[in-house]
Write a structure and sequence with these properties.
Blueprint: E1 3-12, H1 16-32, E2 37-42, H2 54-57, E3 64-73, H3 76-88, E4 107-111
Antiparallel strand pairs: 1-3, 1-4, 2-3
Length: 117
């Protein structure tokens, strides 16, 4: 069964084009190194919940959009191998202070699917 890395983050609307460029490069690199799929989504119907919500989770401000993305791999073992190559790829070397979003508010993690239809 596959393995999935998931990400949720807030991007300032003014930085959305820069984020899309960064995501395009990231998707290219992940796929070249073996990811099966790479998906980036802009929040379209993500209301601010009273207790929990995507915007609350990343402390999204009024001038930010929520991004939800995921990468699919063949397995956890494949993910670990792909991730090592991605992290070593010089195309993704960047100064975190120049990122088009606040990485401290990004949520990410690896998930083992229990059902795929």
């Amino acid at each position: 069964m596959s393995y999935v890395d998931g990400f949720v983050l807030a991007v300032p609307k003014a930085n959305l084009d820069a984020y899309k460029e960064m995501a395009q490069l990231g998707g290219t690199v992940w796929k070249e190194h073996g990811a099966l799929a790479y998906v980036e989504c802009i929040g379209d119907d993500v209301p601010y919940g009273e207790v929990t919500s995507f915007p609350r989770a990343v402390q999204a401000k009024d001038d930010e959009v929520v991004i939800f993305s995921w990468v699919v791999y063949e397995s956890r073992q494949s993910r670990d191998a792909v991730m090592a190559k991605v992290m070593a790829d010089p195309r993704l070397k960047s100064d975190w202070s120049t990122m088009p979003f606040d990485g401290k508010r990004m949520i990410f993690g690896g998930f083992q699917p229990f059902m795929e239809l």
